[in-house]
Design brief:
It is a single chain. The protein has 13 helices and 22 strands. The chain is of the alpha/beta class and 476 residues long. It folds into three domains: 225 residues, 3-Layer(bba) Sandwich (FAD/NAD(P)-binding domain), CATH 3.50.50.60; 111 residues, FAD/NAD(P)-binding domain, CATH 3.50.50.60; 114 residues, FAD/NAD-linked reductase, C-terminal dimerisation domain (Enolase-like, domain 1), CATH 3.30.390. The strands form five sheets. Strands 1, 2, 3, 4, 5, 6 and 17 form a seven-stranded mixed β-sheet that branches. A five-stranded parallel β-sheet has the order 8-15-9-10-11. Strands 18-19-22-21-20 form a five-stranded antiparallel β-sheet, with helices on both faces. It starts with a strand and ends in a 7-residue tail after the last helix. The mean pLDDT is 96. GO terms for molecular function: dihydrolipoyl dehydrogenase (NADH) activity; flavin adenine dinucleotide binding. InterPro entries: Class-I_Pyr_Nuc-Dis_Oxidored, FAD/NAD-bd_sf, FAD/NAD-binding_dom, FAD/NAD-linked_Rdtase_dimer_sf, Lipoamide_DH, Pyr_nuc-diS_OxRdtase, Pyr_nucl-diS_OxRdtase_dimer. Its cofactor is FAD. Its main location: cytoplasm.
């Protein structure tokens, strides 16, 4: 007889492992299945985020930022550095160590919370007697377990470009971009999304000539355009070459590199010759191999699992969360859904507010936002007020030597409720948290303006942006 569990989670990424831990905390007998492997073939819990996404990219961003500071900015502080060089093997090794620490951390949390872990690929077999049978295809053998509730958290994979499929040698996904062992003299990027810009930033700082081909006529189309234009200006100043409105044609890969034919915004036919090409055109839900047809689990036309607002699928007691369902493909969104589903299984009222999910691009300057953009408010005809404050006028930013960017706040013209906050500049990823809290409690810009912020701090720029809503900034 197969092992039986109250809750079986398929996928051990941010959504899956958090769902498993929360369900265990609520008293359920929980199993989690995950197939990620480390270099030695052992388990590597944490999913895309930990293994080839959020964590390793931030490790390399930090390392490359240190190098960039030493190369171009230490002299401003009276610090002389001679004979500066990059040990890329050491840098990649440090990144791998950080990843392993996070992998091991999830395993420790499973043991602490008594979550049973199965290393292998999970797939549906059948539904029988109120239970779902799940096959675990491990490295050595297969076994079948069963669960009353199933939470699918299988994540997503990088979208391939037809005619330029990933070989992870010349044409790279985020995975290959994180595993480069030699600095490419010329690096091309197709797509100026989060992953593309972050990876482009890493290799540009280390010395690569980076060119970005973006199909949209505007930069960062999902970002408030005042903020996006400020970021674009900063990236171009740093040396990033960005071609907007580019239509990519034939891509040829050879031993010497990659050739990309494209038509620019002016209609001119051009060719980009690079050593390596990163394709960053979005991600697709991981449902291949899940065998949803075995139990009649519904997928949409994109291959994602169909769920309602509570993450319920068309099947009783089968739930799905994270990148494999609708909504933004963000690790923290998956985590929130994981907690909410575990609590709903326990009869509680799990909560996820999609309007207050923050977004971050960890470039330099960082870009972070929550809520609606000015373009969205105009499109829906909502009356609003806007306030901005530049880091150029912030004392802490001056002391840091990093005054690029601004904080922008949008509030309802009548009620003054904060509708969106958009930041480009130093530590935007941390500054956005205050704004998320404020919006979750439906605060007004006046609330932020009246709160005492430490001086000198970057957070004072948020207060000043709130003051700017009523045109009463104190330091600009």
């Amino acid at each position: 007889m197969s092992k039986q569990f109250d809750v079986v989670v398929i996928g051990g990424g941010p959504g899956g492992y958090i769902a498993a831990i929360r369900a265990a905390q609520l008293g359920f007998n929980v199993a989690c299945i995950d197939e990620w492997k480390n270099a030695k073939g052992g388990p590597a819990l944490g999913g895309t985020c930990t293994n080839v996404g959020c964590i390793p990219s931030k490790a390399l961003l930090q390392s490359s930022e240190h190098f960039d500071m030493a190369s171009h900015h230490f002299a401003d502080h009276g610090i002389e550095v001679k004979g500066l060089s990059v040990d890329l093997d050491k840098m990649i090794s440090r990144k791998d160590t950080v990843v392993k620490q996070n992998n091991d951390g999830v395993q420790y949390l499973f043991k602490k919370n008594k979550v049973t872990f199965f290393h292998g690929r999970g797939s549906f077999v059948a539904a029988k007697d109120g239970l779902y049978e799940i096959k675990v295809a491990g490295a050595k053998e297969e076994e079948t377990i069963s669960g009353k509730h199933i939470i699918v958290a299988t994540g997503s994979s990088a979208r391939q470009l037809k005619g330029a499929e990933f070989d992870e040698k010349n044409i790279l996904s985020n995975d290959g971009a994180l595993r480069l062992t030699k600095l490419p003299a010329r690096l091309g990027l197709i797509g100026s999304g989060v992953i593309g810009l972050e990876m482009g930033s890493v290799w540009r700082r280390l010395g690569s000539e980076v060119t970005v081909l973006e199909g949209l006529p505007v930069f960062l189309g999902a970002v408030d355009q005042q903020i996006a234009k400020e970021a674009h200006k900063a990236f171009v100043k740093q040396g990033l070459k960005i071609e907007l409105g580019a239509t990519v044609g034939e891509i040829k890969s050879s031993k010497t590199g990659v050739s990309v034919a494209y038509v620019n915004a002016k209609g001119e036919s051009l060719s980009l010759e690079v050593d390596k090409l990163i394709v960053s055109i979005g991600r697709v839900a991981n449902t291949v191999g899940l065998t949803p047809e075995a139990v009649g689990l519904s997928l949409d036309e994109r291959g994602a699992i169909v769920v309602d607002g509570d993450c319920k699928t068309n099947l009783a007691n089968v739930w799905a969360i994270g990148d494999v369902v609708r909504g933004p493909m963000l690790a923290h969104k998956a985590e929130e859904e994981g907690v909410a589903v575990a609590e709903r299984i326990a009869g509680q009222h799990g909560h996820v507010n999609f309007n207050t999910i923050p977004w971050v691009i960890y470039t330099n300057p960082e870009i972070a936002w929550v809520g609606q953009t000015e373009e969205q408010l105009k499109a829906e005809g909502r009356a609003y007020k806007a306030g901005t404050f530049p880091f150029l006028a912030n004392g802490r930013a001056r002391a840091m030597g990093d005054t690029t960017g601004m904080v922008k706040m949008l509030a309802d013209a009548v009620t003054d409720e904060i509708l969106g906050v958009h930041i480009v500049g130093p530590m935007a990823s941390e500054l956005i948290a205050e704004c998320v809290v404020a919006m979750e409690f439906r605060a007004s810009s006046e609330d932020i303006a009246r709160i005492c912020h430490a001086h000198p701090s970057l957070s004072e720029a948020t207060k000043e942006a709130a003051l700017a809503i009523d045109k009463r900034t104190l330091n600009f």
